[in-house]
Amino acid sequence: MKTQYFTATSLDGFIATEDDSLEWLFPLGDVNDTGYPAFIAQVGALAMGATTYEWILRHADKGAQLTGSAWPYTQPAWVFTHRELPRVERADVRFVHGGVEGVHAKMVEAAGNRNIWVVGGGDLAGQFHDAGLLDEAIIQLASVTLGTGKQLFPRRVTSPPWQLLSVRQIGSGFAELHYRLPGNRNKSAA
Ligand SMILES: NC(=O)c1ccc[n+]([C@@H]2O[C@H](COP(=O)([O-])OP(=O)(O)OC[C@H]3O[C@@H](n4cnc5c(N)ncnc54)[C@H](OP(=O)(O)O)[C@@H]3O)[C@@H](O)[C@H]2O)c1
């Protein structure tokens, strides 16, 4: 069981524009050509921040076209927020706030022997990292720059650096980078 941050980012390190648009991302390739289908099949629980949750709600129509459901996940999802957010019918969503450690313990229990996906944003992934709970990052590096936006990972990690496990080209739109994060609790995760 691993805790993984799986996301797409621009070359200059932004996962969304400042106004939370992902329109730059979708023309770059088909998600089914990336590692996502194999990745999501191994996910037993997921966590996201309020802005990411609100993005999914705003794009429920698109989600329904792709997956047949307004809520794209069958796994239990923990949404970090200080606010009362709308619920999606039949979605297994638990709203939480504060430290990630207690939530992570519940996610581990729910995930069984499957992995935990930290969907984003970058600071929430950073909170899991700060707590020593992030094992890996799987980054779809998109062939665009945004100039400004929501940061991939607003932390300074220099020593030890992340360990690059693999690189895969996905057409001309993406390079998929798979990293192990040293200093995490589960150092032997591979
Ligand atoms: N490129 C990709 O593949 C990809 C992947 C994931 C997300 N995204 C996009 O990237 C953007 C990310 O937005 P973001 O950087 O603002 O991050 P976010 O994590 O989605 O949302 C941040 C918000 O989550 C809440 N939050 C975070 N940690 C919390 C904690 N410990 N306790 C309680 N609440 C907490 C706070 O909201 P409140 O205090 O307001 O409740 C905070 O302002 C979104 O537009 C999303 O759609 C892109």
Q: Short summary of the structure?
A:
By secondary structure, this protein is α/β, with parallel strands linked by helices. The chain has 5 helices and 10 strands, in the order ββαβααββαβαββββ. An 8-stranded mixed β-sheet has the order 5-4-3-6-1-7-10-9.
Set down the secondary structure blueprint:
Layout: E1 3-9, E2 14-16, H1 36-41, E3 43-49, H2 50-58, H3 60-67, E4 77-80, E5 93-96, H4 100-111, E6 115-120, H5 122-130, E7 136-142, E8 150-151, E9 163-170, E10 174-180
Parallel strand pairs: 1-6, 1-7, 3-4, 3-6, 4-5
Antiparallel strand pairs: 2-8, 7-10, 9-10
The structure holds NADP nicotinamide-adenine-dinucleotide phosphate.
NADP nicotinamide-adenine-dinucleotide phosphate binds next to strand 1, strand 2, strand 3, helix 2 and strand 6.
Task: Give the N-terminus to C-terminus distance in angstroms.
Answer: 10 Å
* Element-by-element helix/strand order: EEHEHHEEHEHEEEE
- Number of helical stretches of at least 4 residues: 5
Radius of gyration: 16 Å
How helical, in percent, are the residues? 10-25%
Strand order of the largest sheet: 5-4-3-6-1-7-10-9
Structural class: alpha/beta
Q: Total strand count, please?
A: 10
Inertia-based shape: globular
Residues in β-strands, percent: 25-35%
Show unreliable segments.
none
Small molecules bound: NADP nicotinamide-adenine-dinucleotide phosphate
Major β-sheet, in short?
8 strands, mixed
Please tell me the overall pLDDT: 94
What does this protein structure show overall?
- The chain is of the alpha/beta class.
- Helix content is 23%, strand content 29%.
- It has helices at residues 36-41, 50-58, 60-67, 100-111, 122-130, and strands at 3-9, 14-16, 43-49, 77-80, 93-96, 115-120, 136-142, 150-151, 163-170, 174-180.
- It has an eight-stranded mixed beta sheet with strand order 5-4-3-6-1-7-10-9.
- Strand 9 and strand 10 (174-180) form a beta hairpin.
- The chain is globular, with a radius of gyration of 16 Å.
- The model has no long low-confidence stretch (mean pLDDT 94).
